[in-house]
Amino acid sequence: MKKKEEKGFIMLNTPMIKFIMVILGVATSYFLSIQSIKVELAAKAEMKTVEQLDKKLTNIEYMLNQGVLSKEQFYLFSQNIDRRLSKIEFLLENKKGADVGND
Fold first, then answer.
1. What is the distance between the alpha carbons of residues 14 and 4, in angstroms, rounded to a whole number?
2. CA distances from 98 to 59, 78, 91, 93 (A)
3. N-term to C-term CA, the chain
4. pTM, to two decimals
5. Which of 38, 53, 61, 60 has the alpha carbon at shortest distance from 89?
């Protein structure tokens, strides 16, 4: 009598197990899609930031060639840029660590 109950139990739960597996598969694909979108957006934002920095550096090079900017001003500016880039790097490293912890 136990064999019939065990066999019936397995047969009864097989559709439920398949349904749960389908739900888990859908949830996994959803979260993977969201993560890939986040990665793409981060890459685009990074490229935009790099382009802005490149434009600013080109402008600074032009001002240096024209003699508009003194060496002291350039030194202060370079310290400011270095400080900002260090801050950005620190924030990106902490954000990356926070994202890994959330997954």
1. 15
2. 36, 30, 10, 9
3. 46
4. 0.40
5. 53
The answer for 69, left when phi > 0, alpha when psi is -120 to 50, beta otherwise, is beta
Amino acid at 52: Q
Q: What are phi and psi of 67, to 5 degrees?
A: 80, 15
Q: Which residue matches tokens 């790097």?
A: 89
Give pLDDT tens digits along the chain (103 positions). 444 455 555 555 778 888 888 999 998 988 888 888 888 888 887 888 888 888 888 887 777 777 777 778 878 888 888 888 888 888 888 876 555 445 4
- The full DSSP string for 29-93 is HHHHHHHHHHHHHHHHHHHHHHHHHHHHHHHHHHHHHHT-S-HHHHHHHHHHHHHHHHHHHHHHH
